[in-house]
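hey team, just a heads up i'm posting the complex here instead of the shared drive bc the drive is being weird again. everything in one block, sequence lines first with there labels, then the predicted structure for the whole assembly after. its two chains so it's a bit long, scroll down
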Amino acid sequence: MSNQEKTSGAAKAAATAAKEKAVQAVPKPDWADGLKQFYDSVVDEPLPDELAQLLARFDEDEA
Amino acid sequence: MSGKPKKDRPARSAADKAAFKRELTEVVPHLRAFARGLCGRADMADDLVQEALLKAWAAQDRFEPGTSMRAWTFVILRNVYLTDMRRNRFRGEYDEGVAERILTAPAGQEEPIHLSDLHRALLTLPAERREALLLVGAGGFSYEEAAEICGCAVGTIKSRVGRARATIASMIEEGKVPERTLEDPSAHRAILQELDEVAAGNGVTEPNR
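-- predicted structure starts here --
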C-alpha cells in the first residue's frame, strides 16, 4: 500500500463508504466459515475432568 | 457461593429434573465453545463454564422445560463473563492452544490465514460485537435468538454482527491481525473502557435478566 493512497482523503472516504456498505450487506467472507470451525473444534473436544466431575456432583446432589 | 433455589414453585417432577440434567450436560461443550470465543484462554473459559453451570444448577427451577437450554445457559454464561471481567479487569493473554489450522490461503498472499489469527482478531473486538458474532456466526443462532440472549433489539444484533465482520475482514485483508500476545496498550485500554461502560449499564450490552 503506498503512502499516497493511505493519506489521501478520497481513499479514506472510499474506505469508509466501503465499510458502511459492508455493514449493510453483511457479506459472508471466506474466513466466516472459520468461526464455525473454531466453535465446532471446541465442541468436539473431550470434556475436561473438572467439568465432568462437577456434572457428577450434580447427580449426587439429586440423589 | 450459590444459594439453594427457592422452593416457592410447585415441585418439579423427577422426570423434569432428569431432563434438566441431561440437557444441561448436552450443552456443556457449547458453553465451552462460547466461553472460549469470549475470552482468549482455555483455562479461563472453563472457569467461566464451571461458574455458569453452578448458577444454572442453582437456578434450575427457573428453566422452562421445552425451551432452549443452550440459549438459557448462554444468558447465564455471558452474565458470568461480564461480571468476571468487571471484577478482574481484562486478563487477556492469548492462548497458544488454538489449533494452527489453515483457514484460507489466498492466492498471491504470502501468509495463509490461520484459525488462531481469526480468534485473535475476534478477541480485539468490543465485547458486545464479539458476542454477537460468536452467537450468530459461530453458534448458529438466528438474529432473533441472539437478540433474546443479549437482551437487545434484533436490529442491534444485526448491526453488531455486520460491524464485527467488517472489522475482522479489514484486519485480515490489511494483514493487521494482532500479534500472539495482546500487548497493544491501546487495545487494552479500549477493551477496559468498553467493559466499564457495559458494567455501568451504559453500554449497549448489559447483563440480561
